[in-house]
Amino acid sequence: MNSMSGFGSNRCEREGYEIAVEIKTVNHRYFDFNVRMPKNLAKFEDDIKKCIQKRISRGRVDVFINFANRHPGAKNVILDEVLLDAYLTRLHMMARRRKLKNDISVMQLARLPEIIAVEEEHEDENFLRKLVIEAVDGALDGVVKMREMEGQALCGDILSRMDSVSKLADAINGRAGRVLEEYAVKLRARLSELLKDIAVDDTRLAAEAAIYADRCDITEEVIRLKSHIAQTKKLLILQEPQGRKVDFLAQEMHREVNTMGSKSLDTEIATAVIEAKAEIEKIREQAQNLE
After folding, report:
1. Contact, 66 vs 35, CB < 8 A?
2. Which of 135, 171, 191 is closest to 21 using CA atoms?
3. Are residues 34 and 154 in the same domain?
C-alpha cells in the first residue's frame, strides 16, 4: 500500500521541443488534480489527468509544466501599429497640453500594454501531446516510487502499533477477570462489616457478583477489537489502495477500547485504555496518509 505523499520530476527534449514536469502529491480525501502549464498546452489537460489517474487514485496532485520551443524562428514578434499610433497621438497631446517634455523612447513604447505580441509557430499537436505525456509519465515514476517507499514505512509503523494495542487488550482482559474476583472479596468484606454478627447470604452475594460481572464484561469488545486488528493487517499487505478502510477500522478499534474503559472503574484498566487509545490515534493519523 502506498502513501499519498510523493514528488517526481522529468524533462524531455526532442525536435526542438523541451518539456519539464514536476509532480507533487499530498494526502487528500479524494483525487484532487491541479495543473499549471502554458496556454498552448492547456488542450492536453484531460490527457494529463487520465495519465495520472492510471497510477494514482487518491490524494492532491499538483502538476507544474514548463514548455520551450527551441526551433529557429519559432517565435514571431508582432507590432500592433494601429494601437501604437493611438498611443502616440494621446501622448503628444498630453505633452502639449501640460507643457511636458516630449521625450518618448522606443523602449518606453515597447512596454505599453498590448503593443507587442509574441506569436508561436504552428506546432505539431499530436507529436507535442505524446511528448507531454511521456514527460508526465516519467515524473510519475519518481512520484510512485517515493509513495511506495513511504507507504511501506507507514504500514510498518501501523503494524507495530496494532501489536501494542493487541497486547494492551490482552492485559485489559486479564485484569478484568481479576477485578471481578477482587470485587467479590471486597463485597463480602463490606457486607460482613455492615451486618456484624449476621451471616452473609452467599446466594445474594453471588447474584450481586453476577450483575457486576455482566455489567463489566468486555469479552465482546476484545473479540471485535482483535477482529479489526486482523482485518487491518490483511489490508496492509494488499497492493491496491485501502487507506479509507484502514482509517475506518481504526475508528472502530477506538470505539471498542473506549467501551472497555467505560465498563470498568479499575485504575490499571483505565491506564491501559488510555495507552491503547493513544496508539490508535497514531494509527489513524498514519492511515490518513495512505492511498
Report:
1. no
2. 135
3. no
Q: Are 31 and 53 in contact (CB under 8 A)?
A: yes
Helix, strand, coil fractions of the chain, as percent rounded to 5: 65, 15, 20
Name beta bridge partners: 36. 64
For residue 83, give Cα distances in angstroms to 20, 59, 79, 183: 36, 48, 9, 96
Rounded to 5 degrees, what angle do the CA atoms 158, 162, 165 make?
140
Asked, for residue 85, whether it belongs to a domain, the answer is yes
User: What span, in angstroms and rounded, lies between the C-alpha atoms of 96 and 105?
Assistant: 17
- The alpha helices in 98-124, defined as continuous H runs, are 106-110
Q: Can you tell me the distance from the alpha carbon of 55 to that of 67, in angstroms, rounded to the nearest whole number?
A: 24
- Point out which residues pair with 10 in neighbouring strands: 21
Domain contains 1: no
The torsion angles phi and psi of 134, rounded to 5 degrees, stand at -65, -45
Per-residue pLDDT in tens (0 to 9) along the chain, 291 residues: 788 899 999 999 988 889 999 999 999 888 999 999 998 899 999 999 999 999 999 999 999 999 988 766 556 778 888 888 898 888 888 888 888 887 888 888 888 888 887 766 666 789 999 999 999 999 999 999 999 999 999 999 999 999 999 999 888 888 876 666 655 666 556 655 555 655 555 566 566 655 655 566 777 888 899 999 999 999 988 878 888 899 999 999 999 998 888 877 778 888 998 999 999 999 999 998 888
Q: What does pTM read for this prediction?
A: 0.66
What nine digits make up the cell of 101? 517634455
**175 close to 268: Cβ distance less than 8 angstroms:** yes
Written as one letter, the residue type at 22 is: E
Distance, CA of 47 to CA of 191 (rounded, Å): 80
Q: Which residue type occupies 155?
A: C
The verdict on 174 and 235 lying in the same domain is yes
Assess if residue 63 is contained within a domain.
yes
